[in-house]
Amino acid sequence: MRGLAVERLAVAVRGRMLVDDASWTAPAGQITALVGPNGAGKSTMLRAIAGVVPERASRSGGVLLDGERLDTMPARERARRIALVEQSTDAVPQLTARDAVRLGRTPHHRILGFSLGDEARVEAALADAGAGPLADRQLGELSGGELQRVHLARALAQRPAAGEPSALLLDEPTNHLDVAWQLELLALVRRLADDRAVVMTVHDLALAATHADRVVLVDGGRVVAEGSPDAVLTADRIRSVYGVEATIDAAPDGVAIRYRRMDA
């Protein structure tokens, strides 16, 4: 299979299991949504795949990209193949968007310094993320949606040469965005999934059901189910994992999910 394969991944901190024997796949060319309640282990899974778990954490299991082991690669090589956009990305307000995106090329250099080829990749990443018009603006001037585009562009600047496998990991990319920005961002993510595996954590189950090709449902660090959105996001599973009753209305242009307390 082309794409990501997570095999029996486990992450523990001070003896507490945050991710427990998790196995799932994210095919290239598709969007895979990681969903689950707060504290289910979704963000920890993404960070473990990217190789940025805390030093005090113990981890086991494997992560493969197009059949090649990522978890045993040197950090610099892994960073060339896989990019993580986290919920809270430290940003220096005085940096321009272009300068922030240039940082994405760092894994490709042992000594800081950028070639004309690097600059072309930076401009291409800005364009692909729809952030070209923001290139000369400082990060401190940008809205939340605009910042997300810049962070995506920085992740895209890490990508390897054409034809090499790559994956993009997005931790709550729609968080704190209004509805219009959410739809814009998800349309962009759809375009980016054309030739790579894209995995995003999502709290809004309706967004996952409408915009993802596959859903991985996580609870207590374990994978409860994976597959197509309609197969995974059932009323019974939502009741079991989230502790609420759900009514799911599917239509060709999207999915609506209504919730109510179980004792209501």
Beta-strand residue fraction: 25-35%
Distance between the termini: 45 Å
Shape: globular
Order of helices and strands: EEEHEEHEHHHEHEHEEHHEE
CATH names the topology as Rossmann fold
Strand order of the largest sheet: 6-7-8-3-9-10
User: What's the number of structural domains?
Assistant: 1
Secondary structure category? alpha/beta
User: Can you give the mean pLDDT?
Assistant: 88
Q: Rounded to an integer, what's the Rg over CA atoms?
A: 19 Å
CATH architecture: 3-Layer(aba) Sandwich
CATH class: Alpha Beta
If helices are DSSP runs of H or I spanning 4 or more residues, what is the number of helices? 9
Helix content: 25-40%
Q: Strand tally, please?
A: 12
Q: Major β-sheet, in short?
A: 6 strands, mixed
Regions with little confidence, pLDDT below 50 for 5+ residues: none
CATH superfamily: P-loop containing nucleotide triphosphate hydrolases
Structural description of this entry:
With 264 residues, the chain is α/β, with parallel strands linked by helices. It has one domain (3-91, 164-261): P-loop containing nucleotide triphosphate hydrolases (Rossmann fold, 3-Layer(aba) Sandwich), CATH 3.40.50. It is 31% helix and 31% strand. It contains 9 helices and 12 strands. The chain has helices at residues 42-50, 75-81, 97-102, 116-128, 144-157, 179-192, 205-211, 229-232, 235-242; strands at residues 3-13, 16-27, 31-35, 57-65, 68-69, 82-85, 167-171, 197-201, 214-219, 222-227, 244-251, 254-261. The strands form 3 sheets. Strands 6-7-8-3-9-10 form a 6-stranded mixed beta sheet, with helices on both faces. Strands 2-1-4-5 form a 4-stranded antiparallel beta sheet, covered by helices on one side. It has a two-stranded antiparallel ribbon with strand order 11-12. A hairpin with a 2-residue loop joins strand 11 (244-251) and strand 12. Helix 4 (116-128) crosses helix 5 (144-157). It is globular and about 60 Å long. The N and C termini lie far apart (45 Å). This is ABC transporter ATP-binding protein. Residues 4-245 form the ABC transporter domain. Keywords: ATP-binding, Nucleotide-binding, Translocase, Transport.
